User: Fold these one by one.
Assistant:
Number 1:
Amino acid sequence: MEDRPFCSKILLFGEYSVIRDSMALAIPYKIFEGQLAFKKELSPTKDMELSALYYYLREMERDGKLSFEIDLEGFFEDVIRGLYFNSTIPRGYGLGSSGALCAAIFERYGGDQYKNNEDISQLKIYFAEIESHFHGASSGLDPLISFINRPILIQDKKMGVTDLPRYTHGAGGLFLLNTGRERRTEPLVNLFLEKCKSPEFSNLCNNVLSPITNRCISSFLTKDTSSLYEFFRELSDFQYRYFTPMIPKIFQELWKRGLKSEDFYFKLCGAGGGGYLLGMTKDFNRAKEILKSYDISPLFQL
């Protein structure tokens, strides 16, 4: 049996605001991927990551906390035989490295009864149970996207598969900037939740951030690029003003420069703190020249 690869993901819009019930749009990112494989040479040491995941799932099963069936015996035997997750997905970048791993384990050991399950809400629950091993708590969204390999739209607290529009190859676009820094999601989310205890900050998130995010998603999905540029700038400005702790310090001046010159705008791509920034520009060639000392990658031409 040859296991298929599982790709990384990008939360295009909805970071933090989705916690306040805004819309969110997450997409597969096929540049990076991982797949289960066996070491070509037998090794006396087991893969520590997969071994730890096995013991976690075994304890969950014994405690009656798993809501799905999984072949743990087969999983453990394969770990002994040299199973590992061969992945190009960078860790600590918010691209779903652990999500892709969970999706791969679920497909190989969860049984055929789940492979064609169209109830993605139920699948999300299964994946949350597996990925909680890595994060303490998980929404299950990252492994779900890797598993179904389709964009997912969250709207009115409901989740569904969506299609991305086909854009003509314009001069502008969305792009990624690699900060070259790993980060951990949990402390940043905890900081956001703590800030939300302030009525003033909570009101800003509910009545300013969430509507801007919703407008960005709606404009993107309807190919209203002129509105998208406007709302993306508003989102960039909001995050620069109120999410400073989530923006790496060495990129704050560059972020401000983009807002002032309007040559490009940045927003967080996920929790922030490192990983990637998501950029938008009306002239990608110009932005690429200005940012030539940084590692940038085009995502969508608009």
Number 2:
Amino acid sequence: MRLVKYLAHAGAASRRAAEQMIAAGRVTVDGAPATDPALDVDERSRVAVDGEMLRGPEPRAVYAVNKPVGVVSTARDTHGRPTVVELLPDTGLRLYPVGRLDTDSSGLILLTNDGGIANRLTHPRYEVPKTYRVRVAPAPVSDAALARLRTGVTLDDGPTAPARARRLSADRLEITIHEGRNRQVRRMFEAVGHRVLELERVAFGPLRLGSLAPGEHRLLDAGEVDGLRGAL
């Protein structure tokens, strides 16, 4: 098995993050620094990250979490801010977030130790839809602004793909995108003349936030995980 795949299966990180860990010199195999992501390893190999020996592949798990505002969507934070991983009790698993959700945004985020599903859910090729509910100012949002969101708007990093957008009330809307640019929804509304005051992600692919309260989490069952895989 390739080293980068071994790290992902062991729950150390997604494959993309595992490649970065290897490049940064954080990984050793049998006591020697490993710099080749394609290095062949097996269950007899002693693979360590930051000096901590991995125990081999973990049971795969995916959790849904309702991230509150103020919590960062990383596994650890150098500034001491609360992280989304800390919202779960110690599971004994090396969980990490699937994608990002801004610190000042709330809602559904997934935590997993399955590098394969994490990579596929976030890779632009698969165009996994993500749905958000937003409150904006000034209100109301005009039909012309909605039409621009639905056809795509031009941002400083290029035009966006068309979004699904609908008005819920004078100042509240629901929007679905399948890209993952930094603060994309906020920037899209700014491009059509509105500032986002509140942003909550309510769906990731076929999975919906539902009645999960802020700060709560739940383990997805096999059917839900299969549903996520089927969305790819």
Number 3:
Amino acid sequence: MAGTDKSNLVENGGASDTLSLAVILVEPQMGENIGMASRAMLNCGLTDLRLVRPRDGWPNSKANNSASGADVVVDGARVFDTTTEAIADLSVVYAATARPRDMIKRVMTPRHGVPQLRKKADVGQACGVLFGGERAGLENADVALADVVLQAPLNPGFRSLNLGHAVMMVCYEWYQTGSEAPAEFLPEGRTRQATKGELVNFFERLESALDDSGFLHVLEKRPVMVRNIRNIFQRAQLTEQELRTLHGIVSALRP
């Protein structure tokens, strides 16, 4: 269970119950795939799992095994006889499918469609996404119940997805709409990024050492060489710890 820290567990997509997304698996076949879908859901803070006629019955120990600790999702799953019953309390339903359908239905990618779904949840509408079984996906009758079709822009010659992969694709987009994580950040355990003042202090010390060694002896070229050297280190986005290491290198190389 690498990457698991239950002290930081987030449920309902990082928001209140009103912003939770229901994941409805219609006629899933294998308990293992239900477990992997559950794992994907909890990765994204979601717990509302609904099963319509699971082939191998429910509960299913194989689902718990493959969920890798996402037992809160598996154990809380609700089973329904029909898709209509499974979505009866929802106001907005999307259907995830890779196959084109012979019906007039709005089709969106997860990247663009899920944020719109989240906006509907923001104003209090209960939302869910339908996923079909492993053998043939959703039936047309199920898709007809949906407001929008979600279709990922994948390789047109091979769009087949594992059930867990499909659930992760949609749940990830849902989670990102409510995430305040920066687009780029230092990995855990690394020190903070060096300040510009710390960088300039290092630059001046390095340049002094290079002057003493004779590396910058051509005076007319010195400004350009100094600028190039500084740009090398600027691009590296050095941390405070890395800068201390570089100071140590300069100290070791000076006579």
